[in-house]
Amino acid sequence: MYVETVVGPDTVNTMPPATLEALLDHGTIVPDTVESDLGAANDLMRALQEAKISLFDVTHELQVDGVTLFCDSFAALLGAIVYKQKLLESGGAERVQLALGSSQPAFDGALENLASADFLKRIWARDATLWSTQPDDIAIIKKSLGWLDIQQRMLEEVPGLRSFAKDAKEHFDFAVVCGMGGSSLAPDILADTFGRCDGYPQLYVLDSTCPQQIKELEERINVGETLFIISSKSGTTTEPNAFYAYFHEKVSKQVGSSQAGRNFVAITDPGTSLDKEAKEASFRDDFKNDPNIGGRYSALSFVGITPSAIAGYDINLLLDRALGAMHANDPTVDPRSAPGVRFGAAIGGLARNGRDKLTIVTHPQVKAFGAWAEQLIAESTGKLGRGIVPVEGEPLGEPANYSDDRVFVYVGANLPDPEPGVAEKLLALEAAGHPVIRLEMNDAYDVGEQFYLWEIAVAAAGVILGINAFDQPNVQESKDNTVALLAEYARNGKFDEPAANVEGPDFSVTYLSGSEAIAAQSATQALAGLFGQLRLHDYNAITAYIARNPTHTKLLQELRLKIRDARRVATTVGFGPRFLHSTGQLHKGGPDSCVVLQITADDPDDPQIPGMKVGFRTLLAAQALGDWMSLDKRGRRGVRVHLKGAVEPALRALVAAADQALSAHV
């Protein structure tokens, strides 16, 4: 609105990219407009004086605000120069390095398709027909692309976030993000990557309804000295609401109910029930996120950046790295050279040609990143019987451990101190004909670049696969099942669990409808029958409704490697209920290559959830059964293993039985 009227000779007009793009799109430039109609300008000045509006006060305030913004922009510019310097020092290597071997034609064809479709120009124009022509899909997509330039808009929020963080560190020793899926994974990855900053609260993430995991968190914090960040896009997500009710009661007992709200922050869309609760309960702050961003694309919005600010991380630098990735994929760039489009063409094109198991390997500095990428890929592409299967956290093996359905992507190439042996194993896989993609990083803050790179890539892969990359049609079904089971529990004091097909001393086994043909007299035989159903190019999804802690993680890693090496299939591990908002969509909506090993247990504790008339143990059981019902309805292959007694010894017994079952099958 203002640019056209201030054109003058020998002047420089600074403007943000969005303003420049709008000007190029529909502006009209006429010479010397700054000197036109000076009489009207003088009349306006006199009118301001008569209205007692001080032009001095207005321009002074604009100058102060403007200098602040320019300081932040200049800091971002310096960060960009350092980033570019490091890139040049590395010889100008491609940020996305592709070694695709015989799969090169699949990539070439996909890249050409994206270029012919004008992918970058159309995505920036919010053209939903890139992914679908169905009216319902178009309505969803048009409300899902706010992430494209969110890092640019979030840079304007940096001063306010830093001010809030300064206040928070004076009052709190701990901060806990209470969320699920897209609301929790980015903060979790950032907390793992950057750890604790001196003088700032220790950042934790709670995304499990497992009583043991909640108990383990409570042992690390002092509730009265903790800032709880309740994060939910819809404001109605069951888990964050349960966490809020639970911890609000505990905080109230320590600091008093009238002051309890000061220990809470909300991150949600405008107008949600959580937004209203934040006002009514006098939360310390309420960060309203852009409603045009889906949960899994929200890492660079308030969802990921607010907890990072509270933890003392350099959010300006994090956003600046993402801004660099945005400009590398802006509408003026040839899609054939844009890193995000090239990456998307590789994973989408190769998946369409049979290599749909995207195996994510990470440098130790960003070891947790794969969990965030896993959700983005699985929930975005796993639908209509298609999808890319993200394989996260599976240690690298030898070429003989894999079949011809794999693509390997290494996040953190060029970072110092890599894990010994990884580079050699990747070269061996490459030599054996497996496609290998290496993503360059200069330091840990390039995780901001990675967030954006993967978002563009997955959007592009969705075009190649012919799916809507922004909906999650099968996630709601499990949620609805859980709600129905909780209603049944409220009526009857229980809900019916499926009867076990086989009982063992340490665990029982129940078959999904797709595995009812298994004939077994013992739990070990039942596992052997399950592993016998694994076909070439299948994957085994281990879904564990137990606490996500180092001991359980190590045992499940041992289990997945035994299965992979014996059957040469990809394996995934997800802890419930968090995977329901991630790979759960893929398990139900993706290809029929999923063979499920669900693990449940009975926690000895059942902490009650105020206002819900159930405890966390009951909620977790309902979520596990709701997931089971959804898989069973689709005829998926798999079994449910219910651990008896203490979880750890029973889990060890399961690993031993699986080892025996695999040996017997071989």
Instruction: Report the strand count.
Output: 16
Distance between the termini: 72 Å
Overall 3D shape: globular
Question: What radius of gyration results from the CA coordinates?
Answer: 27 Å
Which regions have little confidence, pLDDT < 50, spanning 5+ residues?
A: none
Report the oligomer: single chain
Helix content: 40-55%
Largest sheet: number of strands, sense, barrel closure: 6 strands, mixed
Query: Would you identify the CATH H-level superfamily of the largest domain?
Result: Glucose-6-phosphate isomerase like protein, domain 1
Please state the second-level CATH architecture of the largest domain: 3-Layer(aba) Sandwich
How much beta, percentage-wise? 5-15%
What would CATH call the class of the largest domain? Alpha Beta
Name the average pLDDT: 93
How many domains? The number is 4
Can you characterise this structure?
This protein is an alpha/beta fold and 666 residues long. The protein has 4 domains: 3-50, no CATH class; 95-125 and 331-465, Glucose-6-phosphate isomerase like protein, domain 1 (Rossmann fold, 3-Layer(aba) Sandwich); 148-323, Glucose-6-phosphate isomerase like protein, domain 1 (Rossmann fold, 3-Layer(aba) Sandwich); 475-665, 3-Layer(aba) Sandwich (Rossmann fold), CATH 3.40.50.10490. 47% of the residues lie in helices and 13% in strands. It is built from 24 helices and 16 strands. The strands form 3 sheets. A 6-stranded mixed β-sheet has the order 11-12-16-15-13-14, sandwiched between helices. Strands 1-10-9-7-8 form a 5-stranded mixed β-sheet, sandwiched between helices. A hairpin with a 3-residue loop joins strand 11 and strand 12. Helix 9 runs parallel beside helix 13 (302-310). It is globular and about 95 Å long.
